[in-house]
Amino acid sequence: MDVIKEIIQNSAIGPYSNWSKGLVLSLFTSIVFTLVFMLVLLFATMPQNIQYGY
Q: Does residue 30 surpass a pLDDT of 90?
């Protein structure tokens, strides 16, 4: 946990208030979870969606 706090302190959002840091981190986390969910969904439906050629 200390490493994460140090990374946040030395990043561009370091001087901002705690609620704005939380907002930025929650936005980043939601984007990452959305991308992971989309990747899992892509792998789950891959055999039905692959088409070769034009």
A: yes
